[in-house]
Amino acid sequence: MATKKFELTDVSTGKKTELPVRSGTIGPDVVDIAAVNKDHGVFTFDPGFMATASTESKITYIDGDAGVLLYRGYPIDQLAEHSSFLEVSYLLLNGELPNAKQLAEFTTSIQRHTMINESLLRMYNGFHYDAHPMAMTSAIVASMSAFYHDSMDIYNPRHREIFAHRIIAKIPTISAAAYKHSLGQPFIYPRNDLGYAANLLHMFYAVPCEPYEIDPLAAQALDLLLILHADHEQNASTSTVRLAGSTGANPYAAISAGVSALWGPAHGGANEAVLEMLEAIGSVDNIPKFLEKVKDKQSNVRLMGFGHRVYKNFDPRAKIIREMCHKVLAKMGRADNPLLELAMRLEEVALKDDYFVARKLYPNVDFYSGIIYSALNIPRSMFTVMFAIARTAGWVAHWQEMISDPGMKIGRPRQLYTGPKQRDYIPAAKR
Ligand code: CMC
């Protein structure tokens, strides 16, 4: 098969360069632009990475036009129906689904790493009661680098594996401690006999003075949400983890950077923003007025939970969540939840509106996730933390993939400089 090439011509000098085109297993080809600077002395310019593949990866594939999401080749709907979050985490980390023995060993390893150092626990007391749990979570994850010196050689594959198990095991404990701190309740230690999602519910809701019974549907819904949020190729937070990790920084620092990047409302913070938006709209009657505001570019108001950089069709995760949302609310006796009704009506109206149709704006993963979290009594400030717990598996898989690549380079983009040209310093008295 002939190797594909892309020809670049500088029309002012007539100089031509043949750029190699690389093909993946599926998806668009990429043009390798390394020679552009060498041959022509220019850089490419692509703010927001609208047309730039930042890396090669074997982990996750998205076809945004068809609404397809694959983890290591497996469609998200099949994993959502048949798998579990820990199995998906193993898949993301190792590239293959585990056999029964591998899954049992992985599960045991995660369950044995759930506790956090008591000194880390004492750090929460330094936070005010109303500190945002994302602030606590990113700080405590970063602080883990001060504790686990025994396994921090990033070029040692065994150390990387210990780190991966440790952070996936401890992120629920870290997040639950942030939640308990905000409530002023005692921290609840993990229970290693419980599944990943059930243990999370236990650490959130149990109190020392009475038994707490875990609702299996709540654990199932949570596990599903964790699967759906586990990875999403080179999104902003994953790219942040890769960029921070590319400097050789310790992996806890890199993951903490990812938690911080996730926090923004254009990314993981959207689930919190969706609920705020629904409450602000208040009732179905106010939808037209709200959508007028969204369409007015001066207003800076967006329909939160709608639109995606990659999906120009239904986000496949949104469809699965919508279905689970109905099941959870029906079970909780809240099938007539006014926020769900409002969200469904808003979705219906927006999908018929020319503004959203023309721009191919569809509901994304966060449009319905907040409604399930609320039904599970998870407070709004914890929504993005829930996302972070799930995405930790993806972040770690991407960090591992990058560090184990012998050709890894520090991420160092260039710029188009538009500031002042060189000028001489003038002392203050003469300015
Ligand atoms: N409401 C109203 N208009 C929108 C929206 C929206 N939610 N999203 C995009 N647009 C418009 C935007 O104004 C622009 O219009 P025009 O062409 O007239 O200037 C056009 O659609 C393209 O938008 P963009 O901002 O250039 O697209 P992007 O790829 O840079 O942004 C996005 C993607 C997700 C940041 C954006 O769609 C958005 O802000 N959505 C709301 C926030 C949200 O739900 N985020 C969660 C994303 S999914 C979870 C995750 O990955 O973290």
Which spans have pLDDT < 50 for at least 5 consecutive residues? none
Name the helicity range: 40-55%
Order of helices and strands: EEEHEEEHHHHHHHHHHHHHHHHH
The N- to C-terminal Cα distance equals 67 Å
Bound molecules: carboxymethyl coenzyme *A
Largest sheet features: 3 strands, antiparallel
Structural class: mainly alpha
Architecture overview:
- By secondary structure, this protein is mostly helical.
- The protein has helices at 34-40, 76-82, 85-94, 100-111, 118-123, 133-143, 157-183, 196-205, 216-229, 236-245, 251-262, 270-281, 287-295, 316-331, 338-352, 354-358, 366-375, 383-403; strands at 5-9, 16-22, 30-31, 60-63, 68-71, 74-75.
- Helix 3 (85-94) runs parallel beside helix 18 and helix 6 (133-143) packs antiparallel against helix 7.
- The radius of gyration is 24 Å and the shape is globular.
- The model has no long low-confidence stretch (mean pLDDT 94).
